[in-house]
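User: Assemble these into one structure.

Assistant: Restating your components, then the assembled model:
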Amino acid sequence: MTQTVALTGNTAVALAMQQIEPDVVAAYPITPSTEIMQSFATYIANGEVDSELVLAESEHSALSACVGAAAAGGRVMTATSSQGLALMWEVLYIAAGLRLPIVISVANRALSAPLNIHGDHSDMMGARDSGCIQLYAETAQEAYDNTLQAVRIAEHPEVRLPVLSGMDGFIISHSIERMVVEDREAVRGFVGPYVPHHPLLDLAHPVSYGPLALPDTYMEHRRQLVEAMRRAERVIEAVGTEFGARFGRTYGLTEAYRLEDAEFGLIALSSAAGTCRVAADELRARGMRVGVLRPRVLRPFPHARLRDALGHLRAIAVLDRADSPGGFGAPVFTEVRSALYGLPSPPLVIGRVFGLGGRDLLVEHVTEVAEALEKALETGEPPEPVDYLAVRE
Amino acid sequence: MASLREISERPDRLSPGHRLCAGCGASIVVRQVLLACEEPVVVANATGCLEVATTLYPYTAWRVPWIHSAFENTAATISGVEAMYRVLRRKGRLPHNGPVKFLAFAGDGGTYDIGLQALSGALERGHSFLYVCYNNEAYMNTGIQRSSATPLGAHTTTAPAGRASPGKLQPRKDLTAIVAAHRIPYAAQASVHLWHDLMGKVRRALAAEGPTFLNVLAPCPRGWRHATSETIDIARLAVECGVWPIYEVAEGRLRITHRPRTRRPVTEWLASQGRFAHLLEPGHEALIEQIEREVEAEWERLQRLERLGAETGGSNGPDRGGTAH
Ligand SMILES: Cc1ncc(C[n+]2csc(CCOP(=O)(O)OP(=O)(O)O)c2C)c(N)n1
């Protein structure tokens, strides 16, 4: 039965995993995602889920065990954060290249140095080009819902790619939220049975996974991966729609707020989108027409959707919870600006980096940026294209 | 164990036509191990000569299910495969019923060095698999660089012999002892020229529950600088000169499984390969003495442990109680 409960993001993801009952889970502890594995291990210890739990000696080995397990022919999940995801980096590319549908739950956290355990998106941004699908959840509810959908997306025969399913470390992973959880049987019905694809354990049909491919064949492999990523866009939407039909919460590639009649746009991933919506309401109360777009999916990057949703705006501020030192702006900024380039009269797009290492984003930080956009249009003097919010200079 | 005739009639599960060098010890190791496996197997393979030379896309020499993931994670990869096997068996979802054995093949670089952590983790967790290190005593795939398995005084491209250096300055790591210290049911050293000993060890390893390990000396004509026709002779010489003792540690009890009838001087070993040629020039006498001393010390250590095991009726290394699965 559908229940309204109070859970943290981590325990919500762990519950989703218990309901999915992956065949193999391999993991290694790291703050702030550790609780996912602790809760899941408790489900196993109490006989509430029948999965093999491989407690590896590192995240590199945890994901490597996931690769072996997934190739063997069953459903596989893991969870990590920050340095752990960084240590998995080599194997992420392999999991994607071997087209293994592994779901990797990430409580997003900053990267060292300095050491910092709090939420930002540097970890998943570092895996942007790994060939893994990337979902970013705004709430614990969405983290739970995304975990269920991630299985369907990853395993879809047109896709077969790993999914990184992120939520903001601490802000979501550790905050208790009122949310709805679905009945286990209904979840099982939604995710469906695992359909193996050339499993290693099919001994009658031996296959070789992970051969050497030289310049005359390598590029075709990578090209096919890109095609799978493109198809994933439709699959993510279809799965989000089906999820809505079953459970009443529909998901798409992006989530728009008051954009139709807006002149100004704010763009942010994950939990910061809520702060942006409050700021937009405040600014609208003062007469400034502001809307918000939250990309829920960063890979595949929904560029066409963004052009449709944002093309009519006059100016946009993209807020990034990660940086690209030495680059021209942070990751989401560069992608958004590039997606809008080439429109007949593209909006002005600026980028602001905020909240690194878990620093709070306040409503006034967002309203200040929006007001800077407004002023720029009035005076004709463009603001700094890329800059930082709430940092001591 | 089956007779040589029976074994010779078994289908080769590593097909000919792969691109390993003439005289490569690694392919001999793999074929002997696979011929000794009567059960179906799934193989994980580390990056290295064996992997690149047997699976050039779209070809594969492997007639068994096979996976290569990366260089350092072979033990982790096979533990994932084995974990999936266990859970699917429990849930009745295996595509194929009956016993399956899990094998990992990796070079010394992928085992002694970069893969040691993953190996240690998998041994400690107690997955059932046989890990085979084909030990050619250097990183051969990338062009003969030193590893921690490279012996003292050997010339490699990253620890070359030169006017100011005699080659590798450190003796090799005793990985078999490190592995045995995990108190796994079975660990052994073997050599390609002793096929009967090697295949018997594979059988004993596969009969055990839990992780098992074989460290097999696999001469490399390119890296060791010997003729491609000499691989088996060189392996024999390694054992007869005492530089590669042949033993096993089964349930904590050490046994020397092959004693050379004649013990030949270490200098014969050094003279047999180009990688040691510089040591025979004047000025390296002290180093040769050191190598000889170490060979003697290891031989004595092994004999002592063997006696101890025989006297106490068991464990000179500790037993492993067995794991929960
Ligand atoms: C993380 C990583 N580091 C380095 C390499 C480069 N590399 C590939 S194979 C290899 C050497 C393998 O040596 P060994 O394990 O002894 O096997 P062999 O080539 O001798 O068969 C190296 C260094 C790699 N593939 N991955």
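The longest helix of chain B spans residues 285-312.
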